[in-house]
Amino acid sequence: MSEIVLATPAGEEMILNMGPHHPSTHGVLRFIVRTDGEVMSEAKPDVGYLHRAIEKICEGMTYEAFMPYTDRIDYVAAMPANHCWALTVEKLVGAPVPPRAEYLRIITDELNRISSHHIMLGAHAMDLGAVTVFPWLLREREMVNDLLEELCGARLTYNYHRIGGVAVDMPAGWPDKVMRFVDRHGPILDELDRLISGNEIFVKRNRGVAVVTAAEARSYGMVGPNARASGVDYDLRRDAPYGLYAKVLAGLEQKGTPFEVAVGRDALGVTGDCWNRFYVRVEECRQSLKLVREALAQIQETPAGEFWTPPKKIRPKGEALGRVEAARGWMSCYVVATGEKTPYRAHFRTGSFTSMAVVRAKSRGLMVADLVALIASLDVIAPEIDR
Amino acid sequence: MTTRPETPHRASWLAVVAALTLGAAAAGTAGCREVPPAPPIRDVRPTTLERGDTLLLELGGGGRHGGRLSAGTEVAVKLSGTITPVNGRPVDGGLSFTGRAVGSAGSAQATRILAVIDEPQERAVGGHARFVGRVEITPAEGRGAVLRSAPVELDLFPRTLRRAADGAWNGTELRRVTSWLGATVQPGPQGLAVTTVTPGSPAALARLEAGNVIQQIDGQPATQGRLAARLQRRGTVTLAVKPNATAGSTVPLRVAAGGAPRPFWGWVIAALILWGTSLVIVLLVAVGGGFITVWERKVAGRMQSRIGPNRVGPQGWLQWLADALKLITKEDLIPADADRPLFLTSPYLVFCGVFMTFMVLPFSQLLVVADLNIGFLYLLAVTSLVVVGVIMGGWASNSKWSLIGGMRSAAQIISYELPAGLALMVIAVMAGTLSPQEIIRQQGGAPWSWYVFHNPAALCAFFIYFIAALAEGNRTPFDLPEAESELVSGYNTEYSGFRFGAFATAEWVNLWVIGALATALFLGGWRIPRLAPEPIEASVWLQLASFAVFFGKAAALVFVTIWLRWTLPRFRIDQMMSMCWKYLVPFGLVCLVGSMAWMWGFQGHAQAQRIASIVLFVGGGLVPFVYFWSRVRYTYRVTNGQLDLNLFK
Fold it and tell me: What is the separation, in whole angstroms, between the first and last Cα of chain A?
């Protein structure tokens, strides 16, 4: 901290304090920016403004009771965080999960991924001045929120997953509504491309800005869409499938519409630049639609009502690591249990935290406006960085 | 005034005798009352005239060379020569008034002729004009010989409120009165020192001499203003005069004030009317700007699948009023470390810079405050005031974000004035004038006779102008100075309350300026298809229709700026600058040369020019529009969208 505060400007430079209250820092992020006019010599992220000690809180409560807290790790995409905690504890206790619950987890995860990416895509465009994209995507996100609200009663912090299943089965008519959304959403994504992805100014603002090579992405530990935009072709859903992802992917393969991991390429942008980080997420939305469609088809074969087999007594002993592909990449949870009612230690590793590290290295020589594009393209969420 | 008393010499004397003989013969045959020949004209005053003024012809003594004219005779006073309207061609012409010969007290001999300039004369003159010729006295019936004439040069003005106000402010009123009096006075320590006295003038008749000091006027201390004011009253004025500044006792002198130029206290009213008119314009424009804010928010709402303001007033159209009230009642916060005077004045500079453009914006043929012949140069000049205000606000706020915003704005506005000016020059070259009204008059009503479709270079110039105007107005995609997501709010970050409102009003009013300017320059302004300017000028209804045409075109362009704002992302500062200097400025120069080459090539080929314009209209106007519309329809079809153009719900 002291190093950050004492950073002195050299020569013509000045220190700009960007955040924690700034329109484009997406929550309470803070950057100490050293600039010479508009050109930055450095932007240091100063994290911790939203630290709530969620991991410490976890040590004081039972495994079941911690589920709502996972919602608050990443409130934009709470469902995968739920999933991550449930997966880890289920691994620890060896609890079986009914297939219907697994499918519901996939559907909700993917729907939540879409809605989370909508926030990122809209905010990215809005930070670069294209405001209309944001309300358009919020409109679509509202539909996802409606669906999830009908399923679990909450629009933002779902608390839907349970150890050994999910909280409720899907209501009657819900699959049709989801299908209606999926059918509608494909053309909307095409429209989004026409509106912003290929927009000349948008491409100019993002092309070649803050290029992170695949090697750099690995060395910084970047995960998820950010790493894939740099050309790291790795997706947990395909390469280390959990739950019934393998089955859903196989189903897609059979239908001739295989799941394709969206990877950055030299198209309108350069691999690893802000444009690719934007477009990888547009592509991921398309792939998520495929997964939802296939999972909805397969869930019809599972018996209704079998959505939760609660474990009798959760007093695990040992260590377990659960990994899911959350909206911001790999979310992994490592739990050390000592046979008590409460975990001895739990730790979450999140995508935003590792992404933040790259800001300082990549900000040198960028302009202040580019920093906004960089932050937006990394899709960092303050609570996910700090937890 | 260079009127010289005519010295009688042999030739003119013979001419006068001949004229008199002829005149007498004519009068005799007509059986009219014989008018005696007049004495020579010694002086004509004042030389600056307007309606209601009295022209005073000072007559010399009669005697051997002059005739006699009895006091009370009516004569016709005629000015014949050349009238040159300022900014116009000279016309041969004449003006006639009815004059009355008056004599000095107790004398039957006329010493001067007073002629009141009445309204029909002003109508003949029109605006400010210069008269060079002779003043002639003829018998009242207007027939017969010229009794006397003298060379004269006059400045003729219509009597307008504005001129009256100008006169009052510039002291012309005093000059007119002292010119009549025939004495020049200078304020001194003891009173008004008389420096010169014209022989035969009212001053001379009152025995005022050069070197006298007027100490009191009607018993009150002598000032120039009081002298003018008293003389402008009817009757006599009593002056307390010392023979000279050093010695002598005060002597009362009486000046016969009848015939002095009448006072015109209308200048007070004139000033009030000017003030009121400008207030009305500012308020109307501000209200118009307010409506644009609501319109913009409603359009933005429709574009973004939401409703927009719909609570205040009918369907939300009075939302601007609520916003304005809120801003006015808010605290006008001034940061502790701000540079107070600069911080406080900068919003008004921005405000003035934008509002002053409305001086020359031609809303219709008659709805224009001033049709300056340098109209667009004036526009470029006053809009530059905005950058001063913006950079002052950015600096004085003492906030880094504001400073960056101000600096960005300065760089941007100054840079983009060049392409805007170049695009303007394309039009100036085509029209041969910078007057907005004249540029509009030279275009036609139909789209293919607008300047935008005149030649390919002009079409490019239109886009260059529009892009540059967006940049000058800080509108997306050039809204970097107030980029919310980068600079919080840019140069106006630290402003609140009314001052923020001034910034905001100026910004939205500027939208209207952009639209109106582009309409006047490129889109034919208020011209109605198939109608020449003259019939439009003649009819009130056609005036209103032409205003509607202008308004419609400008509103369409305002809509485009709104639509662009809610569609496009913004440029980065380096991209914005390189776009200006590397593309728009060179391209603007090419357009200028191209336009000139086109005009040279098509000179005298009206038919070819017409065909080319129609081809450009189809290729540059219709085809892109049809393509655009088909794209919109395609998007609506694939997304099951619905077009919602109703802004009244």
Answer: 18
